Each structure stands twice: as C-alpha cells, then as structure tokens.
C-alpha cells in the first residue's frame, strides 16, 4: 500500500512566510501609488517608495520548501524504488516556488516622466502668469508716471497763474528784512496771493530769483507769480502806502511832448498796459497858469526863475520834470503826476542850490545848459567837457551853435533824423532857440535832463576848448581849441562819412 507524503510543519511555515512577504510588497505598492497621487495634487518632488532590496533578495534567495518522506521501507529488506504517485506530483506542485512579482522600475520611470512633464507644463503656465503680472505692473507704473507728469504740469500751470484774475483790490504785504524765499512764500500764501508757499520757494530757487526787497508792498490777487516776484524785487516802503495801480517811466532827455505820450503806458508789468492818463490832459495841465502858480508857491527855489509866458518858450515847465519812474494809484490825477516830477527835480537839485548861488547862476540857466549837454554827450566825461565848451563860448560872447536847440524849435527833437538832415539844418531859422544866430542861452530848456547832465552843467571841466564834433558812426567826441582844428575834425569824422554813405 502506497503512502502519501504530506507537507511538514517546516514547509508550511515557509509557505506562510512567502505569503507575508507578498503582502508587504502589495502594501508598499499601494503606499507608493498614494504618494504619487499626493505629489501630483500638490506638485511635490518625486518621492516614490521603492521595494526594499533586502526583501527582494530574500525572496529570490529563498529556495522552495522540500518535501520530507513520512514513511520508509522495512529495515530488514531493501526497499525497491518507489515510483512517483499522483499524490507526490500534487505535493511537488505545492512546493514549487511562487512566481516573482513584476519589477517596479518601469512603472516608477513612467510615473517620474509623467510627473516631470506635468511640472514643466505647470512651470510654463507659471511663467506665462509671471509675464502677465510683470506686464501689468509695468503698465501700471507707466500710467502712474504719465498721470504724475500731467498732474505736475497742471499744478505748475495753475500755481503760476493769478489766484483771482478779476480781483481789483490791493493786499498790503510786509516782508521783513532778511526773509528767505521760503518765509516770503509762507507770507504770500497766508495773504492768499499764491497757491502754495512751498511752491513759491522751489519756483524762485529753480528760476534763480533772488534780491527780494524788504518793506511794505501793495499786491493784487490778479497778479500772476512772475508779476509778484517782479514787484518784490523793487524797493518796498518803510510804512504802508496807498496801493500802486501802475508805473510810468520818463527817460532822460525826453521833451514834454514825449512825456505826454510816455505817461499813457503802464510799465509795471512785462506786458505794458494802458494808464488812465491821456496825452491831451497832460499837455493841458502843463500849460495851466493857475496850476503852475500853485507849483511855484510849493517849490520856490526850483521855480524861482521859471520862464515867463511871453519869453518865447513852448512850455514853461519844459526841463523841470525830472526823468524817473513814477507810481500812480487808482485816484491819481495828471496834475498829481506832474507834481511828483517837480518834487523829484527839486529833491535832486537841492544839493546844488548853494553852489549855484555862489556861482551866480540860476536854476533855469543850469537846466537850459544841461538840456543841451544831455543830448550832445553820451558819457559823464564827455558831458563835462561839452559843458566847458559852452561856458567858454558864453564867456567869449560866442553863439553856442548847437543843432539840438534848432531841432527843438522845429518840433523835431526826439524824432529820428538822417545825417543829411542834421548836417543841412536851417541855421537861419527865426526863433529864440536859434543859437546859431543868437548869443547866450535859449529862453528855457529844450528837454528834461538827468542827474549826469545837471552835474556837468553845475561842475564842468576846466578846458580851453571852443569846438567839438561827434563821429557820426560811433559817437566819439573830438574837441578843438581853434576853428582850423575843428574844420579838420568835421571833415574827417562827419563829411567823409556822409560822402561814403551817399556813394553807397
């Protein structure tokens, strides 16, 4: 009877061990799959769990369990070889080694490559988003820069304009001595004359404006920033004064006819405007006998020797109106403007009154001579030398022979004349101003001289000159003691130039 061999306890233990290892491998694979899912979801680095090599090696090294025989032949008789039975074949199948699990490397490599592709696609997407963000930020920055520039230009434009272009009232401002640009700006802002005091500070420093004066100033909200700056660079008053509406300027050597036109122009701003004065009113006032007598009483030293009405003068006050810049207010009249000019001449002549008395020269004579010197000379020294020529000729009872007086008699003084007209002047003109025919001075001045010409007339140079002539091209004056020397100068510096001009 054949005995059937069964698995021993040892072989059963081996089979249990093999099943346990397979279970571990399966658990590791499941864990690895879970880990890959987490990596894909959160974009984490690849951290797949590999099957421990020790387990794989142990699995490969574990031999299949052997089947032990449970029965043997009787010891007394040698046993014959026993053929394998179906039971034995079944046992050998049971003890055959378990098939190896497929390798994890191809799966891991595929998962890793897929993960890299996903990361690359995600990186590209992130790069696109980053570029879009950068473009948006740059665009916003450009918009901010442009908007800031527009705001700055608009603000500057509004800050330099008048606070109220329709305002007519004056605002009195006191600027203390030594005030900085920032402090002046704060004062102006407080008075409502500028939009921002700090802007005034930056603007004046950027434009390099300085030389601001101290004192009291009358300003208006209708003034733009440039006008306010210009006003503050002029002298302020020590005490508050009536508001100034504008200014008129009388240049040195102007005649009364020219002054009548000059007072119609307001020079207080860069854009010259019109004053409330009219030329006709001015000319009427300077010929008003009642007004003149009032001025004589007010300025006795200045007008003590004023020409009489029948002396042949065109205007009795010609030469007595001091050339300067004058302020006028809202209620200033033409006569008040004339009064200011007479007051200024009286003030400038005050230092000379005693000298004139000691030299036995009156104010009218000095101003008459100074009016010729004003037009004939260009420099202080030339004027003193020219004044000496006139005095030398007066002392020798020689005619003064100045074209200036004849041009005044013709009504052309102050107008442009050609060299030919000046050279061919009518020396036979019947007029008290024809000092080619008449000796001595004219009955009165022919223009209103300035301080330099007055100084030359009061204190002339001491020379022996009797003649002078000016170069018609550059104005240089050449003096001579004799008529022959004078003719030579005239031929060289006048006639030859006239001939060249005619030929050209």
Question: Could you characterize the architecture of this molecule?
Answer:
The protein is mainly alpha-helical and 504 residues long. Among the domains are: 106 residues, Endolytic murein transglycosylase (Dna Ligase, domain 1, 2-Layer Sandwich); 218 residues, no CATH class. It has a two-stranded antiparallel sheet with strand order 1-2. Strand 7 and strand 8 form a beta hairpin. Helix 5 runs antiparallel to helix 6 and helix 8 crosses helix 9. The protein is elongated, with a radius of gyration of 59 Å. This is Endolytic murein transglycosylase. It is an enzyme of class 4 (lyase).
Give descriptors for this structure:
504 residues; two-stranded antiparallel sheet; two-stranded antiparallel ribbon; Dna Ligase, domain 1; mainly alpha
Q: Mind telling me the C-alpha Rg?
A: 59 Å
The SSE order reads: HHHHEHHEHEHEEHHEHHHHHHHEEH
The largest pleated sheet is described as: 2 strands, antiparallel
What ranges have pLDDT less than 50 throughout 5 or more consecutive residues? 1-8, 51-59, 65-96
Lateral strand order in the biggest sheet: 1-2
Strand tally, please? 8
Helix count equals 18
Multimerization state: single chain
Distance between the termini: 164 Å
Structural class: mainly alpha
Mean pLDDT level: 83
EC number: 4.2.2.29
GO biological process, one term: peptidoglycan biosynthetic process
Family: Belongs to the transglycosylase MltG family.
Transmembrane segments: 133-156
